[in-house]
From TrEMBL:
GO terms for biological process: glutathione metabolic process. Its EC number is 2.5.1.18. Gene3D superfamilies: 1.20.1050.10, Glutaredoxin. One of its GO terms (cellular component) is cytoplasm. Pfam families: GST_C, GST_N_3. Keywords: Transferase. The keyword Transferase applies. It comes from Byssothecium circinans. Residues 2-85 form the GST N-terminal domain. This is glutathione transferase. Transmembrane segments: none annotated. The lineage of its organism: Eukaryota, Fungi, Dikarya, Ascomycota, Pezizomycotina.
Length: 222
């Protein structure tokens, strides 16, 4: 029996946060159950029992524990399986800086970046036109965010300090989506941000997972 079951969809930015965390932790003892978003399976009665808002990802454990919300899942997995992606509890200052960086990512980056992804990626899949006003407003917020990040990354290698942590993983799926939507320049035009991104995206475990995903997507199109 696997250690737990992950309900989600590869390519979903929220699911991929969890998958990247597991990849970095070298953890494979789990079952991935696909939830088809295009078919509305996330709103099925079965999934609503797991996630009261009808979202993904969700993980369930044999002992009955059910967890939803990607960042909460990532943090629990890192603690439970001792992934080296969190500051030690004994380092109070590092833990505080991690919590601060996590809050910054969620409030100042993920919200506007998510709006761009919805308008330019999700709506395209659904055959709907994007709301250009929403995109423009969100892009301004993302640009402003990375202007600040450019200054902060002059003095540290990663978002929470000198070490790669979950906070850095949290950024990866939505930044990838920005590249797909044609907005990669927000990363590439800022030297410190670009260097940080290169350090993150070129980690062996992350490259291995992303390469496997690309190969699977290519095979599915044949």
């Amino acid at each position: 029996m696997p250690a737990f079951t992950l309900y989600g969809s590869p390519g979903s930015t929220n699911t991929d946060r969890v998958r990247l965390t597991l990849a970095e932790g070298g953890f494979t003892d789990y079952e991935l159950v696909l939830v088809n978003l295009l078919k509305g399976e996330h709103k099925s009665e079965e999934n609503m029992k797991r996630h009261p808002w009808g979202k993904i990802p969700v993980i369930t454990f044999p002992d009955g524990l059910i967890l939803y919300e990607s960042r909460a899942i990532c943090k629990h997995l890192a603690r439970k399986y001792s992934f080296p992606l969190l500051p030690p509890d004994s380092d109070i200052e590092a833990a505080a800086l991690f919590d601060q960086a996590q809050s910054v990512e969620m409030l100042y980056f993920a919200e506007p970046a998510g709006r761009i992804a919805t308008e330019k990626f999700v709506k395209r899949i659904m055959g709907l036109p994007p709301n250009d006003a929403v995109v423009s407003d969100a892009l301004r917020s993302v640009e402003m965010f990375f202007d600040v990040a450019e200054r902060l990354l002059q003095d540290k290698d990663y978002m929470a300090g000198k070490d790669f942590t979950l906070t850095d993983i949290y950024y990866i799926p939505l930044i990838q989506r920005l590249f797909v939507c044609g907005y990669g320049d927000v990363i590439l035009s800022r030297n410190a941000v670009r260097a940080w991104w290169d350090r993150c995206i070129n980690r062996p475990a992350i490259q291995k997972m992303l390469t496997a995903d690309k190969e699977a997507a290519t095979a599915a199109q044949k």
